[in-house]
Amino acid sequence: xxxxxxxxxxxxxxxxxxxxxxxxxxxxxxxxxxxxxxxxxxxxxxxxxxxxxxxxxxxxxxxxxxxxxxxxxxxxxxxxxxxxxxxxxxxxxxxxxxxxxxxxxxxxxxxxxxxxxxxxxxxxxxxxxxxxxxxxxxxxxxxxxxxxxxxxxxxxxxxxxxxxxxxxxxxxxxxxxxxxxxxxxxxxxxxxxxxxxxxxxxxxxxxxxxxxxxxxxxxxxxxxxxxxxxxxxxxxxxxxxxxxxxxxxxxxxxxxxxxxxxxxxxxxxxxxxxxxxxxxxxxxxxxxxxxxxxxxxxxxxxxxxxxxxxxxxxxxxxxxxxxxxxxxxxxxxxxxx
Length: 337
Fold this sequence. Notes:
Low-confidence stretches: none
Shape: globular
CATH architecture of the largest domain: 3-Layer(aba) Sandwich
CATH superfamily of the largest domain: Thiamin diphosphate (ThDP)-binding fold, Pyr/PP domains
GO biological process, one term: branched-chain amino acid catabolic process
Number of domains: 2
Oligomer: single chain
Strand content: 15-25%
EC number: 1.2.4.4
Largest sheet: 7 strands, mixed
Cofactor: thiamine diphosphate
Helix content: 25-40%
Keywords: Oxidoreductase
Enzyme class: oxidoreductase
CATH class of the largest domain: Alpha Beta
Number of helices: 12
Order of helices and strands: EHEHEHEHHEHEHEEEEHEEHEHEHH
Strand order of the largest sheet: 3-2-4-5-7-6-12
């Protein structure tokens, strides 16, 4: 089986989908001739031509608005927003149009678009290249939200997203593009070529949207995470020597509540980890669901570990970024409660 980086896996997903279905089109800023700022679309224009993989003006609302019109016409656009931080001009198109087409048309029309966007920090990108806006999408009825943590999941989930009849927000943690970053920024990153989840089939396969995965089995405490924080949680559990069960949500909307409840009912403790700012972050929704569905199983309050309630600070990136130390302290806190 081939070994791929997450960049290569994402590119392979689009390649497989474009080969399978002529209605799949890829476009965005610099995705054509240049192959994308992270090279995620490299070679697609040369292979499929300028009508199926093409560059757009610097207009996020234009990119998404065009994709919605194409989808209503019968095409399946997979578009790229160059950084998640730039999606705000397109938020109106996403929330007022894409998310509501099925509802407003009583099912006569759907909106099969995928909006890809590199998300998160850890690359010294500063405040306008490091944001994690996933919670802004999970609040919107009609959108699906995916955040993969590895190349195998990224390809299978992206193909599933492209084949889904409704709009899917596909957030790619850019800190994971080339390796499974575990938060130890002072250490070299292990490449995906040396990680089991870097093994990715060449052809077509899908992973069901809405299904979480247990990455580490444990009985003392449940750690719920997604994206880069899955690897941070795994490192924190190892560093702290705590028998933690780590759940990779993969899909935030729809959410695999059954997997969460099953784990917390077993462990009786829960820590939720995400990179986005704490207040009104997606971890608040998870914590509320755990309290609602697992109250009589809990041995300690649910604890959240997240980014600060500030703009992303370039100079204090590794203090802002939830690392194994912060997660480890949260694990110790719930174990001692």
